[in-house]
From TrEMBL:
Residues 1-23 form the signal peptide. Keywords: Metal-binding, Signal, Zinc. It comes from Eremomyces bilateralis CBS 781.70. Coiled coil: none annotated. Residues 58-172 form the CMP/dCMP-type deaminase domain. It comes from the Eukaryota. GO terms for molecular function: tRNA-specific adenosine-34 deaminase activity; zinc ion binding. This is Cytidine deaminase-like protein. The keyword Metal-binding applies. GO terms for biological process: tRNA wobble adenosine to inosine editing.
Length: 234
């Protein structure tokens, strides 16, 4: 929210304007929707969250098609005008670890990345670094992940497909929306802004085929019976 506050002095015929930015810390709502970041930039990174799947899993359309990318929007290097990518992650529960949802995998990865080349942050510095970062994920975080995002102290959470949509597609959830976690965790010292349903027209197909044999596969994948496979693997 941005308020332009102008005080005009009749005597001096001059106007003094101060632009007050109501930071979310000053208000109850942690859901300030930042307008300074364009849809184009949001879409760029949501697409990258989808793409994390093809980098990190054997198929571009795995069953657990949850991908995440963590971005520093304070940094806009010339070769990356949309912000600097810090790390990616993808759901990896197939490894036998049920907590490895895409967001948790990415937080684990960023923690390691920030403490190694080229960042070389100390453990304490790595913990503090999350406050500058934005987490993009192609589906709304579950309550476990939303809570981890709050403990990490991310500046922003941006997601594609919402949890209600996931439920309507047949996905199980624990029934606590990320928004509720953010709302109820407002006593934590950090604040996390949340922006949902960003580019969900492109994230929905990743979650639409698993429980509906009639649904088309995501782009680049073909159906064989009940499963969508990457086109190149036939
Ligand atoms: C994010 O970018 C800012 C500005 O370049 C920099 O000061 C900060 O260290 C960066 N944080 C991380 C975790 O890369
Ligand atoms: C961590 O993120 C980097 C990209 O930032 C990626 O190259 C690497 O494969 C990721 N590792 C894991 C385990 O996800
Ligand atoms: C999805 O919608 C956005 C606008 O919200 C549009 O820019 C984008 O091209 C659409 N994607 C596809 C594949 O149609």
């Amino acid at each position: 929210m941005h308020f332009q506050h102008c005080i005009t002095s009749a005597i001096l015929l001059a106007a003094s304007c101060s632009s007050l930015t109501f930071a979310e810390e000053n208000h109850q709502s942690p859901f300030i929707e930042p307008s300074e970041i364009s849809f184009e930039t949001r879409a760029f990174w949501i697409r990258h969250a989808n793409d994390a799947l093809r980098y990190l899993t054997p198929s571009p359309c795995p069953f657990e098609a949850f991908g995440t990318v963590i971005v520093n929007h304070s940094s806009t290097p010339p070769d990356s005008p949309h912000g600097a990518m810090v790390c990616i992650g993808a759901n990896a529960i197939v490894t036998g670890n049920p907590t490895l949802h895409g967001e948790i995998a990415a937080i684990n990865n960023c923690s390691a990345v920030l403490q190694s080349d080229p960042y070389h942050l100390s453990a304490q510095e790595a913990l503090a670094a999350f406050a500058d970062l934005s987490l993009y994920t192609n589906a709304e975080p579950c309550a476990m992940c939303a809570t981890a995002i709050r403990w990490a102290g991310f500046k922003e959470l941006i997601y594609g497909t919402g949890e209600e949509r996931l439920e309507s597609l047949g996905w199980q959830t624990v029934g606590i929306r990320s928004r509720e976690v953010l709302e109820r965790s407002r006593d934590l010292s950090s604040r996390t802004r949340s922006v949902g349903s960003v580019l969900s027209n492109e994230t929905d197909p990743y979650f639409a085929w698993q429980f509906n044999p009639m649904a088309p596969c995501p782009q680049g994948c073909l159906r064989e019976g009940h499963v969508c496979f990457g086109q190149e693997t036939g």
